[in-house]
Amino acid sequence: MPEEDYHFTPSSQLMQADEIEAIAKTFVAQGVNKIRLTGGEPLVRKDFADILKKLAALNIQLTMTTNATRLHEFVNEIKAAGIQFLNISLDTLQKDRFILMTKRDQHEQVMRNIQLMMDNGIGVKLNVVAMKGVNEEEINDFVRWTKDTPIHVRFIEFMPFDGNKWNREKVITLQEILDRVKTEFEFTSIERSAHETAKNYQVIGHKGTFAVISTMSAPFCGDCNRMRLTADGKMKNCLFSTSETDLLTAYRTGADITPLILQNISDKKQALGGQFTTDLEKIETGALHNRTMISIGG
What we know:
The protein is α/β, with parallel strands linked by helices.
């Protein structure tokens, strides 16, 4: 969350549970077979359980990205929805650093909930934003966690968004992450599946795996098939797209949103929303146009 006071969108401007269900059905009718709830933090919505139940009935693969602080309150609902994997955001294993980053003393609760999910047969993928001067010395600590635990750690290159104080000097690239892991571990690569955003690896003899989402240094735009729907019903064809399509307003007026969805996909840029290249030295954050990550959600 940003340091300053943040203006939250009024509830009336957000998709309601029945609207989420109806719009999701339209996507499913066009061939979508996987839906991820993310945010923001999906578990803070008072109607989360209702949304989960509605989406679980759509005969798609349902998953979620969460900060894990409230997972213990929804174990039964998550299992009933058939969720098999969760992505959990965790940028540090150190309690003091966790408090500094999140402004909340919930590190122990998060660690308990990660174990709780695994104890209930739900796979866990950790999303770790790797940043120089912040947590780079913990990279091998995360990899070490995969030795006896069937957990999947995904290091994410630091990406520029409004308000996140992105600086090219903070980016730890794919190669830099692998070079650091090589100082302690011997690992092999795992074949990449179609449309996958992560480059996957496994340390020899480890139960778990690790990966790198190399958006900045080696993007995967060529076969990325992800679409994002914000909490206020705007469709983005790329995390970095400058334009959005207002599906919620169209739906509320009774319009057919299918043509809007198809046009949005057709308008997708070749790579990285058309905003920048992989030459980090040439990225000017002042020239980028996008929401903050917490308001993109999806």
